[in-house]
Amino acid sequence: MAKVIAVTNQKGGVGKTTTCASLCGCLAALGKKVLAIDLDPQGNFSFSLGADADDGYTIYDVFKGNADIYDTVRHCSCCDVIPANIMLSGVELELTSVGREYILKEHLATIAGGYDYVIIDTPPALSILTINAYNAANFLIIPMIAEILSLQGIAQLKETIFAVKKYYNKSLEIKGILLNKYNPRLILTKEVEELANIIAEQLDTDVFEQKISGSVILAEAPAHAKTIYEYAPRSKAAKEYMNLTYEVLGLEKPKTTEKKLGRGRPRKQRRPDEE
Fold first, then answer.
1. Domains in the chain, ordered, with CATH?
2. Burial of 26 (0-12, 13-18, 19+ CB in 10 A)
3. How far apart are alpha carbons 260 and 66 in whole angstroms?
4. Closest by Cα among 167, 169, 163, 192 to 179
């Protein structure tokens, strides 16, 4: 059965979608079969992975009971994707039946056996979609940036996570807090990191050792419908996300041994006295 990871923070602009797409790319590069689920009505996760959300069924149709979850899957370059579009924004008002918090979990149980990992991108709000993601997930990853407002978002999220663990999903585990757009040279970054460690302790988790630096190339990749590992596998950002993936999986990072080259050009032929 697949391990389900939801990436969440009620504040927008903290790198949730980028984190989701990058994890999908890195997991796929490690030979894992991955299913990506977009629960954000903006559909940015779908777009980033090259899934057309305007042609065919989407996750909205699953919540409404209009389609089976198998019918919503798109096969993209690095993984399978269940897309979302703006129609999903009406789910909050349209779903009034008992058990609406478990819709995603029940449908996902029928398909998760075909995958190693399921990555869920959640909306920047504490809605029925977020609750569905928490109920279906084994693990949560909480991305944030080094700003006080981003930190406040996690503090508010804490109450919801505790409530879900108490009433819905007792086995839910917070894998860690991820610091995005990390710049260790800024005083504010260090101050926010210290506060993040305090909140992580309250959530019974840790701040990931691997931080993600700010990078223009991360913004370029979605325009090509590629993950960072597909678009620029040798970039610093791709290496950071791959290291994060190893950390999420609980694996030791492979040691890289760089061969140092001597100065000057190598001789093509031996000198007579060397023969």
1. 3-274 (3.40.50.300)
2. buried
3. 60
4. 192
Distances (CA, A) of 273 to 136, 143, 264, 270: 73, 63, 20, 8
Stated as kind and residue range, the H or E segment containing 81 is strand 80-82
Instruction: Please check whether residue 38 is in contact with residue 214, taking contact to mean a CB–CB distance below 8 angstroms.
Output: no
User: Could you give the angle at the alpha carbon of 166 between the alpha carbons of 131 and 168, nearest 5°?
Assistant: 40
Task: Write out the DSSP string of 96-160.
Answer: -STTGGGHHHHHHTTTGGG-SEEEEEPPSS-SHHHHHHHHH-SEEEEEEESSHHHHHHHHHHHHH
Comparing CA positions, the residue from 87, 171, 68, 81 lying closest to residue 129 is: 87
Q: Looking at the predicted structure, is the pLDDT value of residue 258 above 70?
A: no
Q: What is the pLDDT of residues 51-79, one digit of tens each?
A: 988 889 999 999 999 999 999 999 998 99
Distance in angstroms (rounded) separating the CA atoms of residues 104 and 251: 29
Distance CA 167, CA 157 (A): 16
CB of 78 closer than 8 Å to CB of 34: yes
Inter-axis angle of helices 187-202 and 148-167, nearest 10: 10
pLDDT of residue 125: 82
- pLDDT tens for 226-240 read 999 999 999 999 999
Find out whether 207 and 174 touch, Cβ atoms under 8 Å: no
CA distance 100 to 125: 17
List the structure tokens of 216. Answer: 């223009």
